[in-house]
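Fig. S4 source data, part A: sequence.
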Amino acid sequence: MKRRSVVRSSQSVAKADFRPRPKIFRNFELKTSRFKLALVMAAAWSALGGCSHGHGGAAGYRPMKVSRSDIQVTVLATGNVQPNNELAVYPAIACRIERIRIKEGDTVRKGETLMDLSSTERATVLDEAAAEGASQLAYWQQIYEETPLISPENGQVIYLPTVPGQVCSTGTTMMVMSDHLMVNTQVDETDLAQIKIGEAATITLDAYPDKPFPGVVHRISYFSTLVNNVTTYEVDVWPEPVPTFMRTGMTSNVVCNVSTKEDVLTVPSSALQQQDNQTGVFVPGDNGKPKFQPIQTGVTDGRRVEVVSGLNEGDTILIKSFSAGQFAHTQSSTNPLMPGAPGGGNRGGGGGGGGGYGH
């Protein structure tokens, strides 16, 4: 038979030096310690309950004054940085790149020369002339002019994969241009009605969370998309101006500033209650019990709600809270640390069972 090694605490070792006491004394000490614990917990609940009543509110409620504040209604959306229009530039002829006049990130104008190209024939002639000497090369360079690659539109160079000396066909992408970087977001249909073209927004890039910048809602799509069984619409937000650190593909958060209400009566959203298909709050009643007061609400920012009618500034409302008395009552039937009723308890048992906890 294998031997088991048992590790005991110092307290367990000390108890092992004494002879076992009769069960009746162990049950008596167990009942006594539980009784003391019950007294301590009852005193704590009583103190907490007294604090709840001491603020002038009914049990289970905390009072609060109706006050005025500003409410800013916003819609939050996430998206990615994309070009509004993306234009790939290809050469009109098979060629070799002699010179690149721009670099990635540059802003160019329509008609500006972007590259100097040599057609396949010119490249062949120049190579033969270079083998004959510098004078021959200079002569043919002057006689046989280069072919310029012209910018087809105004925009920014966002991709430049080519290098001087590269041989290109008519299908080679010489560069990619963007007319304007913007943020393409997906907005839930329930929020779409609050967004209008031309409204101000704040854009924050995940790569630069400490550098938010302003934007404007530029486009709201007429075509819906189903994302995770939720109907959404594309909303394009343009930064004004485009920051230098903004790049295509960056993840961004957009906060659309829908509306702002200044100096209006407000209550916390947690104070709102529903009774008989009416929205309202609880106020102190004549008999000391909470009374339901119907109100008319306005806009909300999620945390606070505008009160249009039904309350005045300075009125006291009651907000439901989990009172100590309710908590103690709940715990008495669920918490194993709370004693059961004498002679019985939650698990049942006889009078010698230690209030339902004896074994």
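Fig. S4 source data, part B ends here. Residues 85-178 form a domain with the OB fold (Dihydrolipoamide Acetyltransferase, E2P) fold (CATH 2.40.50.100).
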